[in-house]
Amino acid sequence: MTTDPPRVLTIYDVAERAGVSIASVSRVLNGHRSRPDTQDRVMSAVRELGFVPSGAARALSGQLKEVAAVVFRRAADSPDGVFSDEDESLMFAEVLNRGIEAGARARGFDLLMSSVDVYDHSPQGRIGSLAGKSDGLILHDKVLSAVGVARVARRIPVVTLAGTATEESVNVRSDNAFGMRELTSHLVNGHGYQTLAYLAGHVDSPDNVARTEALELVAADAGAEVWTGEIWRGNYLASGGAAVISRILERALPLPNAIVCANDQTAIGVMFTLAQHGIRVPEDVAVTGFDDIPVARHLHSQLTTVRQPIKKLGATAFDALYALITGAPRPEQDIVLPTELVVRGSCGCPFEPAGPVLPS
Amino acid sequence: MTTDPPRVLTIYDVAERAGVSIASVSRVLNGHRSRPDTQDRVMSAVRELGFVPSGAARALSGQLKEVAAVVFRRAADSPDGVFSDEDESLMFAEVLNRGIEAGARARGFDLLMSSVDVYDHSPQGRIGSLAGKSDGLILHDKVLSAVGVARVARRIPVVTLAGTATEESVNVRSDNAFGMRELTSHLVNGHGYQTLAYLAGHVDSPDNVARTEALELVAADAGAEVWTGEIWRGNYLASGGAAVISRILERALPLPNAIVCANDQTAIGVMFTLAQHGIRVPEDVAVTGFDDIPVARHLHSQLTTVRQPIKKLGATAFDALYALITGAPRPEQDIVLPTELVVRGSCGCPFEPAGPVLPS
DNA sequence: CTGAAAGCGCTTACAG
DNA sequence: CTGAAAGCGCTTACAG
């Protein structure tokens, strides 16, 4: 019946109300052994007061913050019209984050999300600050160099996605080589295509390297040509894929039998630009993707691609981080999840949509 | 040249290395007055050591955590096929979050993102924990009841989005009434439609209430009928819109001249289901949305809708929260941003796409 | 099982 | 402008 002061509550208030010491309150709150009636009194006091412990104080006393920081790159709004809100479509990174979220939720962790601009070449500051606010870091592809990762990983647990494992950090990726081998084999052996162009992602990303190599290997085996090089260089974005095709067509360069895109997003740009020029997929040229992002099945024509278990990749990354944080048995340094070829229409296979697709 | 122990660095290490007291280190780090040479020595030590201050300790000493928590609802995967990864498309909430992020970035804040399941009716626990880890909360629509908001807002700064302002919290919303009046007037006065159905969102959400009222008012003025009621009740999701239309058609109930959807996402489901049944938009029935989410312009037919400044809404919410946190002059309790009618083809207007749209 | 007390790593009056 | 010291709100050996 007394009006409590609007001051923020501490464990002392709870202790006073429950008639016990702050140590007991702390123990009950953390589920340590204590007499049932002590528990009751503390819990009642907590409930009546609406007490919420200070995360900062817990963390300072050596407890976990129960926060994992996730860092990813976000494209600045690109200037060119059509794909200018490319970053506003749900792509790979977003699905990945949902997977991480699912993993985090299961452990009662919250996620500190931090995007760094594509053009920010020294996100060290941001990442340092995140390290101070979290128990561990999950870094998407291309956020930090291997050296940068190694440095940060010495201070705080780090898991990279589609990166490279270091001495101290764990990497989670999917089996790019397997997926690309299956896809390439389908194209050259299944369809008999003789010329494949590889529309690359960031040339130095491990994913991109692995995909190129697998493609070239299988194609060489089957005696098919692979076109690569400067002009076929994209950036994992739809706008990049569109730009490459525009350039090719402008210069009236020949098209291959199939354009193998580094990822689905690139394929979206490619198919769009081809359509603009009246070039039909797959009749005039086959196009394939990589990832199987949700929109892939709503495209025209429906995209043949390699499915990565995107959400699972995210959840696995969190689990690995959690193991690192809690000092559980160290997870493998390089965790590889399986991929799967998904044949739809854009490779030239007859394809009947399994169900209705979104109106478009 | 000595190997430092792998122990985590503190301000004491920096002080020792710089040959000053920890107080001086703290001052330099926080940009307070100090002699240039003190600054230099401290900064050098910080750099050489790679020191990152403990967020927990700063927070415990009464400093800001520089973290804002954002809570939003996320639909659990719905069981029905077509829209089952509805939550995997970039919709309203995601764009809103990007706006919040932009605002936060400008102030050096990080965002603790936390989604609560649609069916979680007591997210108190999660929200309590977030309150302990952040300087303030931004709550999306329908996360907490007004009473719940009021309670939390007594402990920590709170800004709600599309909610209701309380004594302690600030609300940010857009001008639903204005937008809906414009839209309705366009339909009844511009097109002369006599019957409008309102496909509702969550019946008790303030947005939904405001939209219904505005619609009914303008329609009544023009002598047009508005159909509402149980059968026209949706849930802001595409699957909800689809379900309503399916039911209507199953029972062979009549269609109105125009279906005014509570939001764009609902309209997507509506247009999809109409198309399935061979009913043409806008020839057989006009359809409109609300929000102008990015995909709205890629739909067939292109959606006439009311544009909310979604990103700006998010950024404004953060700014209001920041004002609350820093004790700046208190922002208005109810901040209202303008809306704008966007006429495209789905209302029956002749409409020539301004530019190319995504292939589909 | 419980309480008194030290300690986590910072910030900030308070003297100087 | 600088340093010694108190204090932020918890957790956890250490005694009892």
Give a quick set of tags describing it.
Rossmann fold; 434 Repressor (Amino-terminal Domain); DNA-binding; elongated; alpha/beta; homodimer; 360 residues; six-stranded parallel sheet
Summarize the structure.
Two copies of one chain form a homodimer. Helices cover 40% and strands 15% of the residues of chain A.
Written overview of the protein:
Two copies of one chain form a homodimer. Chain A has 360 residues and is α/β, with parallel strands linked by helices. Chain A has three domains: 11-60, Orthogonal Bundle (434 Repressor (Amino-terminal Domain)); 67-172 and 310-336, Response regulator (Rossmann fold), CATH 3.40.50; 176-309 and 342-347, Response regulator (Rossmann fold). In chain A, 40% of the residues lie in helices and 15% in strands. Chain A contains twelve helices and twelve strands. Chain A has helices at residues 11-18, 22-29, 36-49, 55-60, 92-106, 124-133, 146-155, 176-190, 206-221, 238-250, 264-276, 310-326; strands at residues 67-74, 110-117, 136-139, 158-161, 170-174, 195-199, 225-227, 258-261, 286-288, 305-307, 334-337, 340-342. In chain A, the strands form three sheets. In chain A, strands 2-1-3-4-5-11 form a six-stranded parallel sheet, sandwiched between helices. In chain A, helix 1 (11-18) packs across helix 3 (36-49), helix 5 (92-106) crosses helix 12 (310-326) and helix 8 (176-190) packs parallel to helix 9. At the A-B interface, helix 4, helix 5, strand 2, helix 6 and helix 7 of A face helix 4, helix 5, strand 2, helix 6 and helix 11 of B. Strand 2 of chain A pairs antiparallel with strand 2 of chain B. Chain B binds a DNA duplex (16 and 16 nucleotides) through residues 10-12, 20-27, 29-30, 32-35, 38, 53-54, 56-63.
